Every structure is written in C-alpha cells, then in structure tokens.
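Protocol step 4 of 5: obtain the predicted structure for the target chain.
Materials: sequence only (see below). No template structures provided, no constraints applied. The aim of this step is simply to have a reference model before the mutagenesis design in step 5. Sequence pasted as it appears in the construct record:
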Amino acid sequence: MSKSNHLIQPESENPQIENRAPENGSPDVYTATTGGGACEHLSELLSRVGSNPFRNFPDCVKVRPLGRASIRRDPPQLSVRCGVCRQAPHRLYTCVTCAAVFCHVHVTSHPADVDDSDRSLHYIAVDIDRAELFCCGCRDQVYDRDFDAAVVLAQTEAAVIGSMQETPLRPVESTRKRRRVEYKPWTPDVNEQVLIVGNSNPFPSQMSNDSATPEVQWGLRGLNNLGNTCFMNSVLQALLHTPPLRNYFLSDKHNRYFCQRKNSTIVTRSSDNTNKNPVLCLACDLDAMFSAVFSGNQTPISPAKFLYSWWKHASNLASYEQQDAHEFFISVLDGIHETMQNDKGKGPSPGSGDCCIAHRVFSGILRSDVMCTACGFTSTTYDPCIDISLDLELSQGTSAKVTSKKSHKSHKKKEAEPRKSSQNGRLSTLMGCLDHFTRPEKLGSDQKFFCQHCQVRQESLKQMSIRKLPLVSCFHIKRFEHSVIKKMSRKVDHYLQFPFSLDMSPYLSSSILRSRFGNRIFSFEGDEQDTSCESSSEFELFAVITHTGKLDAGHYVTYLRLSNQWYKCDDAWITQVSENIVRAAQGYMMFYVQKMLYYKASEKQVS
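Step 4 output (structure tokens):
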C-alpha cells in the first residue's frame, strides 16, 4: 500500500515510536478552527501544504450503512493496529502526512519522533472509525470546514448515486423557509360593528343562574348514538375540537350555503333538489356540525345527516355495524379532501399540504431511507401522511406503518379475545413506540432492494423519520391485529403510557441526519430542516380516543381537554374527569397540537 494514495498503511509499515499517554485519556473536547480557540497546529499545517489539502480526501472515505463515515481500508479485510503497542482498540488514529497508525494512548507522542523541520506536519491525525480530525498537540478534536466538506461530499455521493434514475417525491415546502409574520390584532370599524350587531345573537352565559352549577365549556355538546355509531361520535368530537380545524370553520372559511350555490353538483341537502344523483359535501355537513355544536345549546344532537353523507362517500362501510374509528377518521379526511378539491378544481399537490383544510391541519411528510449494507448507497423517498400508526407490542418485531393520503380500502375485523394488560412487567410508552418507528430496521432476505451502485439486489437497512411535522399529529395505536396464517384476529389490551406534552424533535429528519453524519460544521445542502418546523416541535395533547371491550363488540369514548380541564364524551353524555382518569385510559388514537402556531406569510402583498 502506498502512503501517497492511502491514509491507512499496513501494520508492517507502521513506525515504532515512543509511548506517551495523553493527560486526560481518550480525548472528547472539541475545538473549532474558526473564531476564538483556533488550533495553531492545524493553522500551521494549512499554511505549509495549502489552503485546502483535503480536496482529494473523499476518495479515502468509506460510507458505511446509515451513512456513517470512516477511513477506507484497502483491502477491506486489512487488519489495522497501533504501530507502538500492536493493539487494535476501538479508537485508532492515522497521521494525515505519513499515514502512521496509533491508538489514543500513543498518538500524542507521534510529532516528537519526527525531525524538527517536519514536526509541524505531523500534529494532525484522523480518527479512523469516525473520520474526524484530532490534534496531537492540543490533544483535542478539531474542526476544519474543508475537511468536513470533503467527508460530507463522500457521504452525499453515496446517497445520491442513481438519483438520475429515481425521482423521489420532493416536498414542495420542505426546503423553503416560512417567513414569520407579525401578529396584528383586528378591531372592527364602525361599519363592521353595525354588521356584527345586526347579524349576531347574544351568546348565552356559560355560568348557570345557580352558583352551585359548574361552568360548562363552550362547544361541549353530546352526540346521540344512532345505532353502533360510537366510532363516529368519538372521532367527530376530536375533529370538532381540533384548534386549527375549529378556527377554520368557525371563521366561515367554508360556508355551506355559498358552496351549494357555487357548485350545483355539490349540495348539502335540499328538499327541492332535482338532481337524481347529488354529490354530498362532507365539508358542508361538518360546517353544519360546527354551527350546531358551538351554538350554545347543550342538548345532544343527532349527526344523522353527516352519517348519511359519509355513507354515500364510503358505500362499502354503509351499515349499522360497528366500524373502526381509525378507518372512519381516514375516510372523513379523504371525503373532505375530495369534495373541496372538486369545488376548487386543480390545486396544490397533496404533498405540499395546501390542497385542502384537512391536509393543512393533519398533513406531514415522512422521509424513508433505504441503505445498502454492502456499499452504503442510500435511496431516499418522501411520502405525505396524515397520521402515524405505531406498534404497541414492540417485542413482536413488527414494523410501524404510515397511513397515506391515498384512498384507503377498509377491511372487516374479526373477533379476538382480549389480551392481558401486562406482559412480563414491561411498560409501553408513546415515546418508546416513536423510537421504534424511527429506529433502523434490517429488511429480510426476501425484501432485498436493487442497489444502483452495486447493480445487484442487496440486503438493506430502512430508517423512517419525520421530514415535516403537521399542525396536528394523530398517532394511531395498532390494537387490532389480524393473522392471515392463523386465520384469527385479536385485540391487544396492553396499557400504553402517553404524555400530555410531547417533544417531537428527536424524531425529525434533521435530528436523525445529525446523529447519522456525526459532528460536522458543514451543512447538508437540501437536507436542512425548516427552522419553523424545529421550533414547533413541542406538542400538547388535546384529545384521546379510547376503545374498551372486544374487537367486534367494543365501545369508543373520547376525552377532550378544554381550558386545562378534561371531559369524557360518551355519546350523548359528557362528564368532567380528572387527569388520572385520562392517563389510565386505554388509548387508541391520540391527538397532539403544536404549542406554538406561526402565521404564514400571505402570497399577496398588503400595502
């Protein structure tokens, strides 16, 4: 092996030098080469060999699975050992000038063994396993922008090989920074005040005349069960109290009367309608639900019109049998999307999140990386999602799946016996499910993918991450399982602990990439996370849908948080409950909203 072509040389060429241990053991202090605290030894090296001595360094970098960089060994099975103690510890360093290899104990003594005239060229070494710079004189890790750029170049080249053959779905908004817009409070003028007074009714007081009667929250109204429709009532209660969705409909952004006049083929319901096959609008029926629920009347209502419209939209689910609340949730969002798209004509793609109010509220973007275990080639795709389905029993090794925005075909679940809530004393948490969802997963031999670099099918690793967070994150816990082999279905009654406040930053693509590529001061072009997305990674829980009973004979209930108080919505009955009751509930669907919502800049210039 030639030193001019390789940083790592065989152990037979390693020089024997004096042993001298570092003062603080294995170094893990980082020193930047820009600004204060610059490394004088690195500066001296750069002044003698040129401003960018690492321009050919990408050829010496090997990209391992998950994109981690290390120094290439040629041949790959080459045994690398310290030139002094002949040991092969986990941390080995090689001099950037002479390619001599040392362990972390003997690397700092390397410059003292060379001639005084060339000593300044031998202070800088490279961590073989991590591809990071280390100064023997400062006994610290150091940063150099050109070096990090060379490493990142090698990593990105391995990730984009074959990108000309593949055209992944690139999110429209993922790389565009959103401008912060200053909030300006609105005060009605004289004409607007006249309109408000003339077209509004006084809202009844929330306090009863009887001081002993507790305060009733605005918008709390029971929904009558129309015959096994608790699945619909539970989801409707969550949707009716989803803050961005509530604000949209209560601000009259979708007026059902205007919608009926604007498009004669989309009607709410009219007795004098002569259209034999009218297309019913779920958005209009939801607008009517918002008007009824937030009218101040506390008498339970019957959502019969909404049920009828949903039956027309999802005819395969039109029956009085118990349905899955998650399937109903997906079907309703699909129905709102379809009817509003037909009303508006062609609009933005679903991946942008701006096609309709349903996707503006619940739409996120997931990143999927499939990495070849042989060469490190990474295939990246982006998929829109409106919720995330998580495995509850992680010990079974099943992978979490994501619900796409495409139309969902329903499947009928069969009976299953409930499972005990405890299993070997293990406690499942929502954070643990998210960790499992974003953890690298080795695909089986029957799932080999075609590597564009190797030009053959190879074993691979797959890792999911969240590219763009939605305004409202919905997590669906997969409690209903169906086995084709065993021809049986069952419900998983295992308890899941979920937090009231959730930090999503560890599961973002930006966090996953930082942990994958290591400590670099060179930014990844095209892979920088939207700053507004990172600053809005804090979520808080506002609704929980629970399921009790068996698979085909259970009951759905929704817990809502309004003004820091929890309420149990059990069809037509609404009662106030404590936080402990909510924490002990068997969560099936959890709804989290961003704690900080940002105003998006308008495309129209306002003078």
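Step 4 remarks: The mean pLDDT is 75. The longest strand covers residues 538-549.
Proceed to step 5.
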